Amino acid sequence: MKCDRCEKVDCEQGRDCTGTEERAVEIYSGQDRQIHRAAAFIEAEYYMQKTRVEELILFCREMGYERLGVAFCLGLKEEAKVLCSYLRRHFKVYSICCKVCGMAEEELELPKIRADRPEAMCNPVVQARVLQENKTELNVTVGLCIGHDVLFNKHSQAPVTALIVKDRVLSHNPAGALYTGYYRKILGQ
Q1: Which CATH number covers residue 150?
Q2: Most CB atoms closer than 10 Å: which of 7, 61, 152, 174?
Q3: Rg (CA), the chain
């Protein structure tokens, strides 16, 4: 599959170019169908009208969620604080920062940003486990580092959505590298 190179985009017109349509219908059952239905409802009702934060609240209401988890990077603590404050108006919210447990990076022989000072490691697996212990129904990530987000998503028992994706260079807007000529040159485009 190389959909990014497709000029026809027949799938947008409802044509199956892969032969998987029959199996795809079977895939969407139970919670997956409920999630997909809620997502389609939000898109259909509020297309180009709501921010991602507003859509998050609408989606959680549509799903009937009551317990949300927020896994955040300490570098985005203020953003997480504002988000949690807003979400707590509607839901029970459990938040957990990336440095939970305060383990030294030496414990796992991890490289440090600065070798001359102690550094606590990020702990995305424990973040996921603590939220699981709190029985969260949906987990929201706020600025987890690349790789840490992968581990968090892998170990989360609840579905996960990203609200903020970390990009220290582009003010947490990784798509900016795809839009600007300067970064496109760097990326070899």
Answers
A1: 3.40.50
A2: 152
A3: 19
